[in-house]
Amino acid sequence: MSVHTIPQTAAAHDAAASISPRNRQRISMWLFVICFMLLGMIALGGYTRLTGSGLSIMDWRPVTGMIPPLSHAEWERQFALYQTIPQYKILHDGFGLAGFQKIFWAEWTHRFWGRLIGLVLLVPLIWFAVTGALTRGLIARLLLFFVLGGLQGAVGWFMVASGFDANSTAVEPVRLVLHLCCAFALYIAILWTALSIRTPSPAFIPATVAVVRTRRLVWCATILIGITIIAGGFTAGTHAGFAYNTFPLMEGHLIPQGYAKLSPFWLNWFANIPAVQFDHRLLATVTALVIGATVFSGLRTPQLGKPAQDILMLLGWAVLIQYALGVTTLLLVVPAWAGTVHQTWGAVLLTVAIVALHRLRGVGRV
Q1: Burial environment of residue 350 by CB neighbours within 10 A (0 to 12, 13 to 18, 19 or more)
Q2: Tell me: the pLDDT tens digits for 233-285?
Q3: Burial of residue 75 (number of CB atoms within 10 Å: 0-12, 13-18, 19+)
Q4: Residue list, annotated binding site
Q5: Cβ partners under 8 Å of residue 80, min gap 6
Q6: CB–CB of 100/77 below 8 Å?
Q7: Which residues are involved in binding heme (predicted)?
Q8: CB under 8 Å to 186, separation ≥6 — which residues?
Q9: Which of 98, 116, 156, 265 fits a 20 to 30 Å CA distance from 131?
């Protein structure tokens, strides 16, 4: 996930600064609404995965798929399609049409929400462009986001299709993580754009040794959050959270037995359940410690200013909540509600880190 490649070029600054203050408020608010909807999409994605709903819709219809089954015959057709895949035969054999409808609605809502996000992006984009509220550069960037959003839907289908393979009851972990990373990359890009439109001119922060150190720590924390999210995707994809449901030890061991049982060694990081879960635990702990050091450094550096210090304090509270949610999800053996909240709060934590980076972009700038 390209968390560390967020540009703040002079051209982007000039483009945002050329927009009137009123339009900056309106455009940034619109993009913040889309960000909020993307958080909802991430939550829905987690819920569909945890309830086994993601494979319930067997066909990909980007436009007509917005319309759910409207007749009993169509419900029967959809159910008959689902009965042909291994997940039904292995996990849900005999659960009936009512059970199928329950998982169908979860997946349909997930897909419908994605289409709705596309409309919320495209329709106001056309309006703002026609009324002259947007610069050419910003129009191009927002159109790119729309195209990438559509491609994200295609990536989602690519992921879902892997669950139709013989003897498969879930999607391939690598494709799941690809879908997750694309979602977060798009979310970060839209969030950064919204923040830059709202405040195109960063507040000057003197580049003292303590300030530079704190900014580097924020970068490290943000990158670690991104890597931990990716590790969490592999934990979800391999169902590693359903094993070793103790904390802090894993069946009485700090490092679980069988950590390196696969060859070559790197394969353990992606496909070996003991290693996948341990790595996610380790990364989460290191991330929490680095954020703790970041908060400590930031609060001891008054030159940062109150806005930057406030967001760093919020970052500290956010990581404590996320760590507690992770442990709770593990100890409860991953109930759907806990796993969904844990995944969603991971996105919130990343959001706070991105806002912190944005507030620190004025370091050393006059």
Answers
A1: buried
A2: 999 999 999 999 999 999 999 999 999 999 999 999 999 999 999 999 999 99
A3: middle
A4: 280, 342
A5: none
A6: no
A7: 280, 342
A8: 38, 145, 148, 149, 152
A9: 116
